[in-house]
Amino acid sequence: MNKPTRPMMSAWALIFCGLTTIAPAGAAGQAAVSMAVHANAPGPKIDRHIFGQFAEHLGRGIYGGVWVGTGSPIPNTDGYRNDVLAALKALHVPVIRWPGGCFADDYHWRDGIGPRAQRPVRVNTHWGGVLEPDSFGTNEFLDFAELVGADPYVTGNVGSGSPQEMADWAEYITSDSQSTFAQLRRANGRAKPWRLPFFGIGNEAWGCGGNMRPEYYADLFRRYATFVRDHAPEGIELVASGAHDDDYHWTDVLMARAGDLIDALSLHYYTIPTGNWKHKGAAYGFGEDQWASTLKAASRIDEFITRHSAIMDKYDPQKRVALFVDEWGAWYDQEPGSHPGFLYQQNSLRDAMVAAISLNIFERHADRVRMANIAQMINVLQAMILTRQAKMVLTPTYYVFRMYVPFQDATYLPVRIDTPSYRYGTTALPAVDATAARDSSGTIHLALVNIDPHHGATVSVQIEGFNAHSASGTVLTADAMDAHNTFEHPNAIAPARFDGVRKGARLVFRLPPKSVAVVAVH
After folding, report:
1. What is the CATH number of domain 48-408?
2. What is the CATH number of domain 14-43+413-521?
3. Which residues are the active-site residues?
4. DSSP 270-290
5. pLDDT tens digit sequence for 460-495
6. What burial letters (b/e) apply to 69-89, b meaning 16+ CB within 10 Å?
7. What is the dihedral of CA 237, 243, 244, 248, to 10 degrees?
């Protein structure tokens, strides 16, 4: 899936065209970092969907994570875990992608409607060969999205399904007519149609979605897109199954052959510390070598977005077609002793860094990147939440997403930063990364990330075009690089209060080593 590419030369190292430089040391053990925020030169809106989630029928992502059923002793609302619902609402989750992933191209939506006891039971051939009871289907997902307050993003079955099946699904969800499928929805307990803003025409068509060539998939997209109609005035954005990593040929072919029908093009990229899919590295208990290699790998998404966007610009200079990074995140060797194929892994402070670096990159590309969906929401890969029976744990990645809520639909503000490098062996990265945005109330929010695990940073910030008096927010850090929360110690790592001080015309922040901070500037 992930192929080696040339070394990164990207906007992460060239922030607002400001070359990263080596700054002199500040206070003892503190690097000196200078940062300018151009509040007088605002950029595009940071679409809230950049902070989206992904929930696949994989491992315990759905069953035991989201859904426990109405008869469960675990406190629930109509089968949905109450603790998970509350945690997700606190994130203001903007969008949830479902049912896959690879699972989508094996999924036939009619299996997941009607009385649950009568739904067929099938084998989940992609993920562990376990039985799929179809208890959580279309109605359950769309009701769940409404409970959370998120937009639904449904991925249709191109690999083993038909255009008719996909068209019928869209009609079942969105039609308010007296048609057979609208009446079927009503018979299944939903009187009014749901909103369906996003519909994916297949998933990873180059791999588990059919092992197709881009020329063939482009023609299939045109065919399927012709028949997926929205039956409500809001309209459905049709998402094409785009490239992974550096497969720029795929993007070029799709834009050339089907760009006129595409509303959004997906991009998938996973961060792997070792670059070896068979031995990816451990989620915790790692050394600084894998701390550095992981963060370097995470930062490569900047180059991929830049180059895919340049190809899209060739065919779509007005940027009508969005880029959806609808699968991203860190992928490690699964937890020892866990079920093969469930992709369950712990989540540490390193993952908080991966999340913050990635979100900052998406924000800097807000002109083209208008959705991103971390893989995955619960109990799978770089999860927000881990559950075990009635227990629930919030991960460091969850806390980063909660800290970044003020950036949803805020206006991006360009940033120039001069920072020392963090170096380990042959790896060199900017030690401090930052983004800024202004929300609808006029408040400016800064996200500051110090990836250096040994040295703090004194960050001096000048905000041009804004009279800053003070700044306060939260910081996430810990003593160990692999600090993580467990069911026995669920609060081992959590955000703490963080403040800046005013010195003349500047705000000054003392960032701890290996930390993420988000502050509101007043």
Report:
1. 3.20.20.80
2. 2.60.40.1180
3. 204, 327
4. EE-SSS-SSS---SSS--HHH
5. 999 999 998 889 999 999 999 999 999 999 999 999
6. beeeebebeebbbebbbebbe
7. -140
Q: pLDDT tens-digit profile of 347-375?
A: 999 999 999 999 999 999 999 999 999 99
3-class DSSP assignment, residue 499: strand
Q: Cα angle vertex 474, ends 472, 477, to 5°?
A: 140
The DSSP call for residue 342 is S
Quick check: 204 and 157 in contact, CB under 8 A? no
What's the CA angle centered on 91, arms 234 and 466, to 5 degrees? 90
Question: Kind and range of the H or E element at 264?
Answer: strand 264-271
Contact 25, 70 (CB under 8 A): no
Dihedral Cα 316, 258, 234, 50, nearest 10 deg: -60
Q: Is the torsion defined by CA of 382, 388, 390, 393 positive or negative?
A: negative
What residue segments make up the domains of the chain, in order of their start? 14-43+413-521, 48-408
- CB–CB of 492/485 below 8 Å? yes
Q: What is the pTM of this model?
A: 0.94
DSSP readout, 449-494?
EE--SS-EEEEEEEEETS----EEEEEE--SSTT-B--SSSTTSS-
